[in-house]
TrEMBL record:
PANTHER family: EPH RECEPTOR A5, EPHRIN TYPE-B RECEPTOR 3. GO terms for molecular function: ATP binding; transmembrane-ephrin receptor activity. This is EPHB3 protein. GO terms for biological process: axon guidance. InterPro entries: Ephrin_rcpt_TKs (IPR050449), Ig-like_fold (IPR013783). The keyword Cell membrane applies. It comes from Pomatorhinus ruficollis. Coiled coil: none annotated. One of its GO terms (cellular component) is plasma membrane. Keywords: ATP-binding, Cell membrane, Developmental protein, Membrane, Neurogenesis, Nucleotide-binding, Phosphoprotein, Receptor, Repeat, Transmembrane, Transmembrane helix. The keyword ATP-binding applies. The gene is Ephb3.
Length: 69
């Protein structure tokens, strides 16, 4: 196409030079509504420090955010 080439966004790749679209690496994804030049992301890691509180009628859960969001 016209203009200079750009590197693929994070966590994506292409198998040929001058490709129009970079596909996500294994384990990474792009939403259908994300532009083709946006970075690919993965699911977050597990929540940390999970605490459960149980009483007679309910269960409450608290946790710290994942290490990798």
């Amino acid at each position: 196409g016209e203009g200079p080439c750009s590197p693929c966004p994070p966590n994506s790749r292409t198998t040929s030079g001058a490709a129009m679209v970079c596909t996500c690496r294994n384990g990474f994804f792009r939403a259908d509504t994300d532009p083709a030049d946006s970075a690919c992301t993965s699911i977050p890691s597990a929540p940390r420090n999970v605490i459960s509180n149980v009483n007679e009628t309910s269960l409450g859960l608290e946790w710290s955010e994942p290490q990798d969001t």
